[in-house]
Fold this protein.
Amino acid sequence: MKATARITAVAEAGRTRLVTLRSEPPLLVRRTGPRHAAGEVEVHLVGGAAGPLGGDRLRIEVTVGPGARLCVRTVAASLALPGPRWPERAGPRSPADTQSTLDIHATVAAGGSLRWLPEPLIAARGCDHVSRSLVDLESDASLTWREEVVCGRHGEDPGDASLHSTVRLGGRTLARQDLAVGPRACGWAGPAVLGGGRATGTLLVVDPLWTEKPPEAAVLGPGAARMPLAGGPAALAAAVGGDLREVRAALDRAFT
Amino acid sequence: MHPEAHTHPDPHAPLTAGARALRIGIGGPVGSGKTALVAALCRTLAADLRLAVVTNDIYTTEDADFLLRNGVLPADRIRAVETGCCPHTAIRDDISANLDACEDLEHDLGPLDLVLVESGGDNLTATFSKGLVDHQIFVVDVAGGDKVPRKGGPGVTTADLLVVNKTDLAPLVGADLSVMARDAAARRGDLPTVFLSLVEDPAATPVADWVRGLVKG
Amino acid sequence: MSTTLLLLADGRFPAGGHAHSGGLEAAVTAGRVRDLETLAAFLDGRLATAGLVAAAFAAAACRGGDTSTLDSEMDARTPSPALRKASRAQGRALLRAGRTLWTLSTVERELHHPVALGVVAAAAGLAPEEAALTAAYGTVTGPASAAVRLLGLDPYATHALVARLARDCDAVARRAARVATVDELPACSAPLLDIGAEAHASWEVRLFAS
């Protein structure tokens, strides 16, 4: 399945208005907060089908205009699954036939704010999923960006999943992270990477108010830390845990 | 990034002796009293010399508090260097972390007269590299046995000053100071040896005098 | 094949490496690395993440990439301030050594270690893939040697682990040397290396600097 969703929020007279809300199955976008809001406008991605499935090409484009405030959530976890059985008569498969991809491109203009708080990606057995996020922030934009991965459903070994994320601030790279789990990733379950933890996540916060003084580094428990970044008013919280609840709890308290 | 460093034609040329503080290494076996000697020297010399300490010993906040409480040195004049369980490597074979610490102290505190580099407790074979320090003191104690000077080793044999420490304990451990003096002289030729008891001489007078002579000289 | 490569990759090269455990001291204290088996898994993960990143940056710097761009891209890939500090300390030590031995193309006093390694390797006349190999090899030998010191593991068995990684190390270096643009530079993250480094930096007493 190939689908693109598009969300554009602009500020008008001190309020945020959604000017584009484009859905395409299985990416269905629903406004869940007020249509015009003085504060933040909230939308949810409503899963139209289980997935992503092998072979899916999904794309989400988010644009936040100057001074606008948007929060994007999903109603449930994404479950990356292998694609349908490949018919032998169709000939040899290429990675494009079996891999699922999700490309997210977000831009936030000066004074704008985006909070990207989806539920986790669950890498089910046999999946082959690649997620790529590119966030472009004008200087003076705010961002909260959460990414979480759960390695397999209950009692299941995960398939291959990789998450690549890039956040640029004023055209300069602020944060680059690639995380890979699954049978093709070397050493991912070992003590240098996840140490047997089945869930991991990061929460990146960029806040222009931190220009003078970003939050200090802090150890948030045996598997979590908050780390101020080098390239701007930003900090990343990272957590590894036995399950999603542990990871979410650590990320939720990272900036409070 | 390092504005002061750029006043030199080549910002990365190592500071030559004279342009930087004198560096004196203090080495010796575990428990011989290196830290106590460093503390005594700081107390005695801090009034008339601008000094700082690099320690390769396992250094706790309690140690820092102890030194601060006893008026030895404020915490910002002491840098701890982690040696990765290889104390001799850090002062002899790969001196980079110690050089960085010495340079950072001078960079952060301004001109200094003296930097004392205390080694982590090691054995009789450990010595400082000439690339790190200008002079070195080797500390042994009478409780380690009066045979120590006879055993020699590069520390005892070649250090610029040998300190035989804790002489007040000699009668208790049955150490013969005259034997130690004779063996040290035989091993060291013209190089000086002093006997010290910080109980009887908390100012470490003979060692402090020797250090002062080097700084002024 | 070159003696210069061996010189630069030698654990006895005086560039401060002995004082860094590559995250191993933190992993040992947390109980994640206890024996040869867990050490082997640690080395696998470190080579595939920090090793590949370091190798790619060393190759890019050796090829003459702009050091200040590479240095800030390395910052962007190193969320942990403790790891940034450790990388810069090792970079500074390596530049100090390199400057004494060869004529470096940079006047920087401090760079991230992989960038410094590329600069020094170029000055020594090495090729980008050799710089990458030196970087990849260092990311496994550092923690392996620290494991011998911290856990008292059999040095022969520990070296056997490193020897078994030789093929992977070569592959990482080849892959790293093929990276052509800054945007392609890998950013493989190892969450527990970051988190462990922050915990390590908060301890009162450490035997290793990182």
In short: DSSP finds nine helices and seven strands in chain B. Chain B touches chain C through 24 residues (CB under 8 Å). The longest strand of chain B covers residues 135-141. The longest helix of chain B spans residues 96-109.
